[in-house]
Amino acid sequence: MRVMIFSTTTGYQLRSFGEAAERLGVDLAFATNRCKGLDDPWRDHAVPVRFHEEEASVRAVVDAAALRPVHGMIAVGDRPVRVAALAAQALGLPGNPPDAAAASANKTRARERFAAAGLPVPWFVELAHGDGHAGHVSFPAVVKPPGLSGSRGVIRVNDPAELDAAITRVRALLARKDVSALGSGPDTLLIEGYIDGPEFAIEGVLTGGRFQAFAIFDKPDPLDGPFFEETIYATPSSLPADAQANVITEVERAARALGLAHGSVHAECRVARDGIYILEVAARPIGGLCSRVLRFARPGGGALASLEEVLLRHATGEDVRAFARESCAAAVMMIPIPKRGILKRVEGVDAARQVPGIEDLHITAKPDQLLERLPEAGSYLGFIFARATTPAEAVAALRAAHGRLAFVIDTPIPVRAL
What is the pLDDT at residue 37? Predict the structure, then answer.
């Protein structure tokens, strides 16, 4: 069996998929935005695609599949989801309708579909490219770019002055070359009402339109703005069982409203006094290295399976309903960036790894890399993983380990254009 992974060339999860595929005996094929002018620079035999050049990209995938048949598709990240859907459609493989995949990666289009389906949504308005003001806005509100993920460019505003400043700041972010290269579209903005309530993340898969939840993650740190830096995910959730069931039901309703049908799902929601508000239903798995927080008991026992293994099984048509998350609690910290600057080194890593309950720690930022904080940041310093008897113990272990780390960050030297 062969599964094609659609991803950018910098996707964190590609190595995890490779390890899972080797265990399963599944052959991986890749479709990435690598330079097609070079002869396989990553030595992964990837099909070179451009996610904004859909017709040519699909044709390249179909041609490659004619030589090496593909039996399933997985999109990693938001950018590849529509091209992956188009390629699956062209090859007659299970997947999502292309327009549904595109809507899942655009916050404004998603809000429109949620509202049309009768799901709770905050008021929202689209501020088109070149528009100088948003018209009537009630506060507090949130400004966000429709096409970016990970809270990038998301700012809470509490008055007209903050709104104007946020619009200017987010448009400046979208105008940067490194951001425009992500294919997030023009500087059209979404402005919507702020939803007061705790936030949760949900991981699972769709099979024929039916949603199977793998985990609900609590986000124990308050996310009330002005920026929304996600730091800790912990599971199992502290929500009561009936509330968890309601969250899962709403995620399935939202996926149906988008038109999604088959494949990975990463969803976000807020539980407010007046209902459950779905923030997004992305047609892809959880990002970064965060997937390592999930492990699954296999039917019949044996070694625990990774999320990537379960997704590969699902992509090849296997029924994965019998896979259930392990019984112990688990949590991951996306190490926040304390200040803007040039990373020189991280101290205390060995001491942090010695904290009881800490399973692993990865510093993914590189020495001499420019670090930015939200709302401009597009990455984290790294990831810390913990397992314990209860979620509270796992979260406490993460905080203790983080407390042993010291980040040496130099102030960048300003450069003036001549």
Answer: 46
Same CATH fold assignment for domains 2-103 and 123-193 = no
Q: Which CATH architecture has domain 123-193?
A: 2-Layer Sandwich (3.30)
Query: Can you name the residues that pair with 212 across neighbouring β-strands?
Result: 205
**Low-confidence stretches of the chain (pLDDT beneath 70):** 9-12, 34-45, 132-134, 183-186, 415-418
- Confidence (pLDDT) at 412: 86
Q: Which CATH superfamily is domain 331-410 in?
A: ATP-grasp fold, B domain (3.30.470.20)
pLDDT single digits (tens) 330-379: 999 999 999 999 999 999 999 999 999 999 999 999 999 999 999 999 88
Reply yes or no on domain 199-327 having CATH 2.130.10.120: no
Asked: is 2-103 a CATH 2.10.10.20 domain? The reply is no
